[in-house]
Specification:
Blueprint lengths: L1 E5 L9 H12 L5 E4 L10 H11 L4 E8 L5 H14 L4 E6 L4 H6 L7 H16 L22 E5 L3 H4 L8 E4 L4 H17 L7 E8 L5 H13 L3 H6 L5 H13 L4 E6 L5 H10 L1
Parallel strand pairs: 1-2, 1-8, 2-3, 3-4, 4-5, 5-6, 6-7, 7-8
Length: about 280
């Protein structure tokens, strides 16, 4: 199982220079990917722009949105931005995509909240057409640049609802589970495998999990405060189960490995650079 590390561009107040230092340090470590969550109505950096900066500061680590809220964005513009980032990073982009659950994000861009699933389905088809070099329509020609990965960046479908996972029958290379813990991830993984098999798709879906962690001085308090700030009342449950010791993190890694996870992203809840070294030491 590969282990990735979160990119703290989602934590309020983090400066750009700090993010570049984090990316460089992670790039020299044992981590497979940088992972970054998405939200609009919050004090966070836009994931694709943050990853463009990280791409220039790194050489090998992959850049994974965990997940990007696709319906907040124009389909053609998102396809162009993703292809640009994939080309600039020499094929290191993985797009975890989902529809989101916060209505205020959609209100901010005047996108109908209850139509976001339908919008996302249309986006997946449109982006695939653009990345394949086809005309957008009879009236609109091809949109470049060509992504470095043939056919477009790797796509992982996110979401807990069965309707979300059903998209794997047609779209994507795998399934990404959010921060609900290994038990929740296991349910999603088994559903994803079933949908994949029933659709007659070759091989097996790539299964990616994500979980929050906190290390360093006063990690439980500081990490819990961020979780509560980001999620509100729902964050209390996550904060209570937040792994804050190397032993607890090792146990979490073992639990995800036991359910067949191909890659696990450890999201930070504090932006201290020493977390990168501490996690690297944990992985040996």
């Amino acid at each position: 199982m590969k282990i990735g590390i979160g990119f703290p561009a989602n934590i309020p107040g983090v400066q750009g220079r700090h993010l570049l230092n984090w990316a460089k340090k992670a790039d020299t470590g044992p981590f497979s990917s940088l992972g970054l969550i998405d939200r609009l109505v919050y004090d966070n950096y836009d994931p694709l722009i943050a990853f463009a900066a990280a791409a220039g500061a790194t050489q090998r680590i992959r850049l994974m949105t965990t997940v990007l809220l696709a319906p907040l964005r124009s389909s053609a513009l998102l396809a162009k931005q993703a292809a640009s980032l994939d080309a600039l990073s020499r094929g290191r982009l993985t797009l975890g995509l989902g529809i989101g659950s916060r209505e205020d994000d959609f209100q901010a861009v005047s996108v109908p909240f209850h139509s976001r699933g339908k919008i996302f389905d249309e986006q997946l088809a449109t982006m695939q057409r653009i990345w394949s070099g086809e005309r957008l329509s009879d009236a609109v020609g091809p949109i470049g640049p060509a992504p470095a990965q043939a056919g477009g960046p790797e796509i992982l479908i996110g979401g807990r609802a069965p309707a979300a996972i059903q998209r794997l029958g047609t779209w994507g290379h795998g399934f990404i589970s959010g921060g609900g813990g290994p038990q929740s991830a296991n349910v999603g993984f088994r559903m994803a495998e079933k949908v994949w098999s029933e659709a007659g798709r070759a091989g097996k879906p790539r299964l990616v999990g994500c979980t929050y962690i906190a290390l360093g001085p006063d990690a439980g308090t500081r990490g819990g405060n961020y979780i509560r700030h980001y999620y509100g009342a729902w964050g209390e449950m996550i904060a209570k189960s937040l792994p804050t010791t190397l032993e607890a993190i090792k146990g979490t890694i073992q639990a995800y490995s036991g359910i067949g996870t191909d890659e696990l992203i450890l999201w930070p809840t504090t932006p201290d650079l020493d977390q990168v070294d501490l996690l690297a030491d944990t992985l040996g």
